[in-house]
Amino acid sequence: MSVKIRLSRVGAKKQPTYRIVVAEERSKRDGRLVERIGHYDPRTEPPTIVLNEERTRYWLGVGARPTDALGVILRRAGISDQYVREHTARKSKHAPSESAGSAKAVQAAPAAAPTSAPAAPSTEG
Predict the structure, then answer these.
(1) How would you list the strands of the sheet with 17-24, edge to edge?
(2) What percent of the chain has pLDDT above 90?
(3) Helix, strand or coil for residue 105?
(4) What's the pTM value of the predicted model, to 2 decimals?
(5) 73 domain residue, yes or no
(6) Which H/E stretch holds residue 36?
(7) Are 20 and 37 within 8 A, CB to CB?
(8) Comparing 7-16, 22-31, 33-42, 54-63, which segment has the lowest mean pLDDT?
């Protein structure tokens, strides 16, 4: 199975604090984990990020994918953007795919080609 690096919520009601954990993709949010590699407190100013960088780089190196929310936190913590961009890259919903773009170009090309206009009515006659 694939492994994700994600946030696991702890803390009291309306006072969230998160553990940064490595877990199987299909396990529950607060369920079984492979390893705890840090914690994150968004309520402090600035937000507190404590992270074991060596273990984080190891897990990213072996193919663990950080969640989108954790990708932002990893960038703030100074983890190389190479790992984060590589593992959190998604296709934009708004950008047309290459196949759709080429189909539009093919449809537009015949319409743009000049058509032979009917001859003007002759005044002779």
Answers:
(1) 48-51, 35-41, 17-24, 3-10, 65-66
(2) 34
(3) helix
(4) 0.64
(5) yes
(6) strand 35-41
(7) yes
(8) 22-31
pLDDT the model gives residue 13: 94
Contacts 24+ apart (CB under 8 A), 34-41: 34/3, 35/59, 37/5, 40/7, 40/73, 41/17
Task: Look up the domain containing 60 and give its range.
Answer: 3-87
**DSSP H/E element including 116:** none
Which CATH number is 23's domain given?
3.30.1320.10
Residue 96 is assigned to a structural domain of this protein: no
Residue 84 CB neighbours (<10 A): 19
**What is the phi/psi pair of residue 110, to 5°?**
-65, -35
Number of domains in the chain: 1
The closest alpha carbon to 66, from 43, 37, 46, belongs to 37
